[in-house]
Structure formats: structure tokens, C-alpha cells
Amino acid sequence: MYRQSTIAIVIPAYNEEELIQDTLSGIPSYVDRVYIINDGSKDRTEERIQEFLSRDPRFVYIRHETNKGVGAAIVTGYSRSFADKMDITAVMAGDNQMDPNELPKLLDPIVNGEADYAKGHRLESRATAKGMSDFRFLGNTILTFLTRFAAGNNEINDPQNGYTAISNHVFKKMSPGSIFTWYGYCNDMLVKLSTYGFKIKDVVIPARYGRERSKIAYPKYIIRISRLLFNELIWRLNYQNMQASARKANSVMVIGGGMSSMSFAVATLSLITPLSIIGTPKPAESPVGMLIVLSLVGLGMAYLGFVLKKGGKFGTDLK
Ligand SMILES: Nc1nc2c(ncn2[C@@H]2O[C@H](COP(=O)(O)OP(=O)(O)O)[C@@H](O)[C@H]2O)c(=O)[nH]1
Ligand SMILES: [Mg+2]
Predict the structure, then answer these.
(1) Of the N and C termini of the chain, which has fewer Cβ atoms inside 10 Å?
(2) Does residue 95 line the site of ligand 1, with CB under 6 A?
(3) pTM of the model
(4) Which residue has the least CA distance to atom 4 on ligand 1?
(5) Are 151 and 191 in contact (CB under 8 A)?
């Protein structure tokens, strides 16, 4: 427990025989559960994890038979954490690149209610990005702008940072299964979280480079992430469009409903009240007919708004 919240950590691991044990031995004592996802590793990652499992009852080992991608591994962890009703889920890479001492900085904004998703930010200055190559620094800076554009959110920083914590209530709206399964999962999440209106907080945490070697192959990475971000942009515009239409349909429904019930009420009132009281002495001038027509028109409008809203599936999740 951390400040009355249950904490889960998801650790994606692919061919991490060298560093997985260092990662596991650094897990802070306040963490309640650790989901270790071995994503079809071909080296001795499994053995290394098994050596650790019996030492700590908080560890839950999950194996993907084949390699599905880092996003898929994280999705598996998120789904388990959500099913197990944990409050907050953090992600720490299996190559020991995330300093566990920094974890409270990500948990605090969530526990305080300031954020639904908190993530590390290494690009604040060249000092906080110490160890990152110039090429990566530039690439990450470009991806920051592209992700901001796709998400329509200019406050996003360091989108490729995998050191994150999320409040599990987010998964009621954004199902883990809808998240992209490869490296761009983090960009995908940022676009969705922004679009759904969740609060995102960047926390400056310096980069940590050690013995690990990145598995990213740049040509494939650049092509896939660019394509993903383009699709994200289209998704967001579509979603926002649908939300706007849903709002319009809602207005039609509410106005129609209001008009219908008011005219119906007045018509009923004028029928049961002596005509002299409401000032219509002659039956020919009675407003009842008109009111009934208005009531029917209002009913029609309300029905139309309802059909547009439901039938058009406005405001539901797009994938
Ligand atoms: N599950 C899974 N994890 C992966 C895969 N590729 C990388 N990872 C893990 O994701 C984390 C970050 O990957 P890495 O290649 O180091 O990316 P970088 O640190 O951003 O350069 C590490 O814990 C890796 O073990 C994969 O295909 N599947
Ligand atoms: Mg790494």
C-alpha cells in the first residue's frame, strides 16, 4: 500500500536474462503486486524469473508463448491489475532502466487526485536526458511534437517514456484491450487519454542508462510510429466529431422532450380548467388543438434525437 492505495507494477520483459533480476530486486516494499510478463523470450529470462518467484509472494508470472510486443505485454499486465482491483498500476521496464526510488513521484499526483496518468519526463534539459544519444534526443523531440499534434494536446512531453503510473479507474473508459500492442503503445495511450479528457502529468525524472541495449530497430520504428500517429490523428478527429454530433442530438432530444411535455401539460390544464380562468371564452379560440400539435412535434424531435444518439453510436469508443 502506498498512502492507502494498492499499487501494482507491470514489468514487460523480452530477452532480459541479464537485467531482469536487478529489476525485480529493486521493487519497493510498499508495492502490493508485481506482474512480470515474459513476452516469448528466447534467452534464459524465464529461468531468471523462476529463481525469484518463490522469494516473494507479490510476484505474479505471466508468459506469452510467442513474442507479441511490448504494448501487448503491458496490456496483459494492465488487464490483470484491473481484474485484481488494484488502485494504481505503474510500468517499469525489465531492463532496470527505471529507478524505483523515483516511483513515489509518479504515484503522488495520482493519489492526490491531480492526475489520472503520471509519466516520466527526461527531455526537460540535456542534463535530465544525460546518456541519451543526440540522435535519440532529436527523435524524441520530433515525436513529442507529432504526438502533441495527434492528441491535440500541447502539454505532452517525452511521449516515448515508459516509466508511468495510471489510476485503474481509467480502464473503465479506456479498455486495456484497445491499446496498441507494439512500441507506440505509449503514444496511443497519450492520444486516447487526452481525447477522453483524463489528466496527464509529466514528472521530471532523469534518464537512466546502464548495461542494457535498446531493442528498437530505427527504420521499422520510424515507419510504424509515423503511421500510428497519423491513424491516431484521424481517430481523434473522428471521435471529437462524433462527440459534437452526440451533443447536438442530445440538445434536439432535450428541447423536443421539453416542448412536448410543456405543451401537453398546458393542453391538459386548459381542458380541465374552466375556460374563463385561462381567458379563452370561446371554444373556437381554444389553444388545445395547437398545443397537441406542438406536443406531438416535440415528441417527434425527442425521438429523432434519441435515434440519432443511439443509432449513430455517437460518443461510443472507436477503435
Ligand atoms: N514484452 C515485450 N517487451 C519488450 C519487447 N521489446 C522490448 N521489450 C521490453 O520493453 C522495455 C523497453 O524496451 P527497450 O528496447 O529497452 O526500449 P528503450 O528502452 O525505449 O530503448 C524492456 O523492458 C524490454 O524488455 C517485446 O517485444 N515484448
Ligand atoms: Mg531500454
Answers:
(1) C
(2) yes
(3) 0.86
(4) 70
(5) yes
- Burial of residue 318 (CB within 10 Å: 0-12, 13-18, 19+) is middle
Nearest-CA residue for atom 16 of ligand 1: 214
The answer to whether the CB of 314 falls within 8 A of the CB of 238 is: no
Pocket test for ligand 1, best of 95, 96, 185 (most atoms within 8 A of CB): 95
Expressed in angstroms and rounded, the spacing between residue 290 Cα and the centre of ligand 2 is 73
CB of 132 closer than 8 Å to CB of 118: no
Distance 97 CA to ligand 2 centre (A): 6
Closest by Cα among 79, 1, 98 to 37: 79
The tens-digit pLDDT sequence of the chain (319 residues) is: 999 999 999 999 999 999 999 999 999 999 999 999 999 999 999 999 999 898 899 999 999 999 999 999 999 999 999 999 999 999 999 999 999 999 999 999 999 999 999 999 999 999 999 999 999 999 999 999 999 999 999 999 999 999 999 999 999 999 999 999 999 999 999 999 999 999 999 999 999 999 888 888 988 999 999 999 999 999 999 999 999 988 998 898 899 899 888 888 888 887 777 655 556 555 545 677 888 888 888 889 889 888 887 766 554 444 4
